[in-house]
């Protein structure tokens, strides 16, 4: 498969914005490194009256209007304190794909996904002049479109990106009443940034996010039957009705942990760090429609038991993550909120600085179906994809995405190559995790 860039330009807001004051970022933006997350939306487009040239022109025009509303996305982050120069604009590319979408769906090379985005996913980037977001519109030989997005994590988390995309789709389709007016100012007032660059904390964050190794990414499908079976196994006193996210994330953690212990020859501390969205957990002030990184990590650690059960991991995970309640949210507000954040980072930093027996860290983020309903007028995306191979410096990462139809979940699993080699051959793991390329009916709608 070849992807050829046919046009490249910068899309700017539809009106000049040089009069706007700089946008202050929040504490959690400050502590998030400059790295790009890939999100891919695949639209087959079977309408015989579909006008591609008109569509491409209107995509750019509506994006320009969207940037006028979401103007921080068009600016530049400076000094890790604020975003300015909102007339800078964002990269926008159009590309031709030399195969049909159906043919692409049968290819197993997950690295091909990186051809659909401008920035290599999860690479360690320099902060200077990095755009907040970049789009690549990929046109397949069949007329289908894959919208590839590179989102700079410094400015945006998944919930922020969702309302941006919803608003762009609304403007594109002329449904202006569905445009979401973003709240840019609550985050920095609730979680004020540090005026002095927090070098000590940033160094720990850098240590936690990036570790040089040879990483491999694989896609695994947990269909509805597998999820149901895992729920039955994981059910216990602490989690009598475990969720899909709990059982799939803990199942992957359990088997990745076992692979790591085989390689090292001995059990070691293992940490599952789950991204926890603040928006549903903070009652006052409301963080609804706020942009920026309004999440933090909930760390769940094992006690080095060789035969730890899925039920135990699920119960432990629920217990730890339920601690992100309204009381904790109150503690994290204002200037005093730095204390629990610093304590968390210092604890992990101390563990990571040990000369021997450094813990394994697995990061989990659950996209659920957060962009599965984005409709530009061509219908919902057939498939939502994440990324191929990550950068040489990153960490073990698992991205969970709800399948478009049904109750299954697709996992984009990134592990160090030796761990992945063992996971690929683990019969107990493969009993529940299947290859989405060969799964029956998974691409039948293309």
Keyphrases for this structure?
single chain, 6-stranded mixed beta sheet, 446 residues, globular, 23% strand, alpha+beta
Could you characterize the architecture of this molecule?
The longest helix has 21 residues, at 244-264. Strand 16 (396-402) and strand 17 form a beta hairpin. This protein has helices at 27-30, 52-69, 101-105, 158-172, 186-190, 199-209, 224-234, 244-264, 310-321, 326-331, 338-352, 417-423, 427-430; strands at 3-11, 23-24, 36-43, 76-78, 82-84, 90-97, 133-139, 145-152, 211-212, 215-222, 270-277, 295-301, 360-368, 383-385, 393-394, 396-402, 409-416. The strands form four sheets. It has a six-stranded mixed sheet with strand order 1-6-7-8-3-14, covered by helices on one side. It has a six-stranded mixed sheet with strand order 10-17-16-13-11-12. A three-stranded antiparallel sheet has the order 2-5-4, with no helix packed on it. With 446 residues, the protein is of the alpha+beta class. The mean pLDDT is 92.
Q: What class do helices, strands and sheet pairing give?
A: alpha+beta
Based on CA atoms alone, the radius of gyration comes out at 22 Å
List how many beta strands DSSP finds.
Answer: 17
Low-confidence stretches: none
Task: Characterize the biggest β-sheet.
Answer: 6 strands, mixed
Shape: globular
Number of helices: 13
Proportion of residues in β-strands: 15-25%
On the 0 to 100 scale, the average pLDDT is: 92
Q: Looking across the biggest beta sheet, what order are the strands in?
A: 1-6-7-8-3-14
What share of the residues lie within helices? Answer: 25-40%
H and E order: EEHEHEEEHEEHHHEEHHEEHHHEEEEEHH
End-to-end separation in angstroms reads 17 Å
